[in-house]
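Re: the pair you flagged

First of the two:
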Amino acid sequence: MLSDWYFWIKAFHIMSVIAWMAGLFYLPRLYVYHVERSGSDEPARTLMIMEEKLLRVIMNPAMISTWLFGLLLAATPGVIALDAIWVWTKLMGILGMTWFHMWLAGQRRQLATESPRLTGRRYRMMNEVPTVLMVVIVLSAVIKF
C-alpha cells in the first residue's frame, strides 16, 4: 500500500523538511537579536513571542511530520537497503538535526526565564549547525555512497 502513496508521502516529506529547516535557520537568528537587545524590555518581549510561536506553531509540527513521512518512506518496500552506508549517515544527520532542534527549544526556555548565557556571536556560530547537517543528509540521500 505504501508503494501506491510513495510520491505523495515523498512530497509531504519534502515540504515538512523545508518548513523545519526554515525554522532551524531562523530561530538562532532570533536568539542573536534577543541576546543583543537584552537590556531593552519591549523588543525582548516581542522576540520571546516570536521565538515561542516559531517553535510551537511551525518547527515542532514540521519536525514531527518530517519524521512521520520519513519513516513511512523508509517502510516503503524497495526504498532503502539497511546494509547501505548512506542510510546510516543520513540517520545520524537526522538525529543531529533533531538534537539541535531540542537544544534550540532548551535555549528558548532558558532565554525566557533568565539572562542569556551565550553571546550573539555564539548563536551566530550555532546557526551553521543545520547547514552542516543538511549537507550530510542531502549528500547521503542523493549520492547514496
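Second of the two:
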Amino acid sequence: MPLRAGHYRTVFTASLGQLTGTALATTVGVVIPLMQIVGHPELSASMQGLVGAADLIGIAAGSAVLGPIADRRGYLAMFRACPVLIMLAAAVAALVPSLPVLLVCLFVMGFGIGGEYTLDSGYVSEIMPVKWRSTMVGVTKAASAGGNIIAAWLCFMVLSSGLEASHWPRLMWIIAGIAAFMAFTRIGFVQSPLWLLKHGHMAQAEAAAEKLLGPDVRVATAAQPAAPATPRSSAGTLAFMRDNAARVVLSGLPWACEGLGVYGIGVFLPVLVAALGLEHFTPQMAPAAHVTKSVEITLWISCIMLPGFIAGLLLLRRAGKVSLQAWGFFLSAVSLALLMAAYEFRWPSWTAIGAFMAFELFLNMGPHLVTYIMPAAIYPVADRARGAGIAACIGKIGAVLGVFFMPVLLHAGGMRLVLAVSIGVMLLGGFVTASAGRFVCRRRAAGVRASKPEA
C-alpha cells in the first residue's frame, strides 16, 4: 500500500525515543565538566566514566528486560510507560542536586530508553509497507541526530544566558521536556496490528489497522500463517542466542564497536574538544565560559550527523546493509587517523575540526544507521523485540565500556591514547561486519532459514 498519514505518525512517534537517547547523552556530556568546575572531590576519571555510562547501563538492562516482555505482552503499554519513566527520573535529577541521585536517575532514564530501542524499530518495521520498511526504520534512527543537535543547542543557549556551574541539575529539564512531549504523542496510539495478527487476535488486528491507517484498510488474514503454539521467544536468552548465533553476531558485536564512537566520543565531545585545544581557551576566560565555548564547537560538529544519516539512507539500497556498515567503520577509522595527524603535527584547527566532522559523517552514514536497521531486518516478528533488545544490549555494553574508559584513557595517555584505541575499535567493527556478513550470506545461499537475513 502507499504511505499514509498513519505511517508518518508512527515514524514520528517512534523516532522520539531515538532523539531522547542521544539528547540525554549530549546533556550528560555538558553536565560532567560543569560538575568538575564546582569541584566535586569524588569526581575522579573513573567516576566521570561512571556518570557518563550510568544511562547506558540502564539502556542495556532495559533492552534485555523489556524486549522479551514486549514480545509476549505486546508493545503498546511499554510504548506509553517508557517516556513517563524517563520524564519522572529527569525531573527528580533536576530537583535534587546530588551525585548519587543523578547516577540513579540516569540509570532509570536509560532503562526507559532501552525499552524505546526495543520497541521503536519493531513498531516501524511491522507497520511500514515492505518497500519502505528499511528506509523508514533508518529515518527513525536518523532522528538521533536531532537529539544531539537540539540538546547541544539548548545547553549552549542556557550556558550563554549565564547559568552558573553549580546549577547543572537544571539541564535535566531538557530531557524531562522532551520525554513529556513524547508521552503526549502516544496518547491514542494503537497496538502493533502485525503483533496482534501473529498472536491470533484477528479482530483486534483489523481494528488497530483501521484506526491507524484508515477505515478502508483490511488485514489479509488468509495470507498470514497461524501463530505457533509455542513462540520461539519463550526460549531462554542463552538458548535463543545459541539458536540465532549468526544473527546475534551480525547485529550485536558491530553495534558494540559503534557504541564507542557514538557514546564514548559523543558523551565526552566537549571534553575532547577542550583536550584537543580547539576552543582557543585563554587564561582570562572563566571556567564556565570555557565549557560554553566547547559546547559551541560540539554543536557545529553535531550538525554533520544529520547529513551523514541522509547520505546513508540514500546509499542503503544501492550499497546494501553489510557493505555500508563495514565501509562506514573503515572510513571512520581513516578520519580519526587524520585527526591524530592534525593533533600530532599541530595543523590548523580547521583541519582537526574537519577530520572530526568527517568522522561523525561516516559513523552516522554507516554504523550508527545500519546497526539499528539490522535487527529489524533479520529477525522474524515473533522474536523481533527480543532480537532487537539483545542487539541493543550488546551495543550498549560496548558503549558503557567506551564511556567508562574514555576519561581513564584521557587521564592515562592523553588524546594520543584515546585516538589510537578509537581507531582500533573502528577497524574491529569493520572487520567483524565484513566477516560476519559474508558468513550469514553464505548460510542464506545454502538455504539455512534460521540465519536468513533480509539485508
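The chain is about 80% helix and 0% strand.

-B.
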